[in-house]
Amino acid sequence: MLNQTDLIMVPKGDSINHYLLLKKCEIKLTKSNKQYLYLELADKTLSLSANVWENFSKIFADIKLGDVVKVTGSMDDYQGVPQIKIISIKTADLADKISPVDFLARSKRDVEEMKNELMARIQRITNSKLQMLMDQFFNEKNLLKFTSAPAGKYWHHSYLNGLLEHSLELIRICDLMCDIHPEINRDLVICGALMHDYGKTEELSYDSSFEYTTRGKLIGHIVISAMLISEGCKKIPDFPDDLRDCLLHIILSHQGKLEFASPVLPKTLEAITLYQADELSAKVNAYKSALGEIKEKGKWTKFLPLASTDLFNHGILP
After folding, report:
1. In this structure, what is the dihedral angle of CA atoms 265, 270, 274, 275, given to the nearest 10 degrees?
2. Sequence-ordered list of residues with C-beta below 8 angstroms from that of 56, at least 6 positions apart, any chain
3. pLDDT reported for residue 206
4. Is 86's pLDDT higher than 70?
């Protein structure tokens, strides 16, 4: 068990004497073509950059991505963004008995509570064919991977159990939209919410850090999810072709735009519902995470490329 102050709680100027997870390690060039070592170091609460300007060749040779490293230095900042000023860094000793998984962020929601919510919602699916299809994917064998995986590497729900948390948010949003618009096929859109990111259980690895697998890079989670659904439908006698195709369409269109890697645009009520629910869940979570890194009200985040803006922490309590 680690006994150290969370990075997010360390003020500027205070010393750092921490075990941290190495998330990036690259040799870069300054504008004057001088080499330096760029690092990204993290605990469960924060991921920070650090630069080593001199005598870094041995450090670069000795450490690798996913390592737990022992870092001494101080909390600093650059243009208002916190970073670590390093004095020393080395790979943690095996005798320290510290695992990379100790540094991976987790959902703040209780996992067992989320599992129970998931299974209870699946049981409410009334279409027998869709119920049988979901039972294939959310059985005891597959449940551990789905409930453990992150929903992304960086942008949203990028922590252990994040895929489960994100999927449950989509289900709640979709259920609300079905209450408002009864024309939406509730079973169909809920199964879309359950399966839209299912392929991330194969797209991402998360044993020591969040990385894309070879299968994930070559195929991607959208296609993996669609392939799994197609195979699953074949195992169910007389699964309706139109039901299969409409579910596949929700999966294939759930990122909304061709330039966002969706092979098709949303063309059904259920598909547009799922796409907008996905956008809402993902962006609120990502914005909330970015704002959570700011300790003071009336402050701005750094520019977020995926949001195309910086964000303001107004500090007004709910």
Report:
1. 20
2. 27, 36, 37
3. 87
4. yes
**Local structure of residue 265 (DSSP, 8 states):** -
From CA 60, how far away is CA 37, in angstroms rounded? 8
Query: Tokens in use for 192?
Result: 């879309």
211 with 182: CB under 8 angstroms?
no
**Gap between the terminal Cα atoms of the chain:** 34
**What is the Cα–Cα distance from 111 to 246, expressed in whole angstroms?**
31
Output the six-digit token pair for 252.
């294939």
Instruction: Name, in order, each residue with C-beta under 8 angstroms of 51's C-beta and a sequence gap of 6 or more.
Output: 36, 37, 38, 39, 83, 86
Name every residue whose Cβ is closer than 8 Å to that of residue 131 and which is 6 or more positions away in sequence: 122, 125
The Cα 37–Cα 56 span in angstroms is 7
Reduced to 3 states, what is the DSSP secondary structure of residue 51? strand
* Look-up of token digits 């704002």: 291
Domains and CATH numbers, the chain: 7-102 (2.40.50.140), 104-290 (1.10.3210)
How far is C-alpha 91 from the geometric centre of its chain's CA atoms? 26
Token pair 């009520």 in the structure block, residue: 269
Q: In whole angstroms, how far apart are CA 245 and each of 25, 136, 144, 268?
A: 44, 18, 28, 11
If we measure between CA atoms, which residue out of 281, 296, 221 comes closest to residue 251?
Answer: 221
**Per-residue pLDDT tens digits for 124-153:** 999 999 999 999 999 988 999 999 999 998
With beta carbons less than 8 A apart as the criterion, state whether 298 and 313 touch. yes
Q: What is the pLDDT of residue 295?
A: 64
**Residue 119, Cα to own-chain centre: how many angstroms?**
22
Residue type, 219: I
pTM score: 0.83
Whether 315 shows a pLDDT value over 90: the answer reads: no
Residues 6+ apart with CB under 8 A from 267: 249, 253
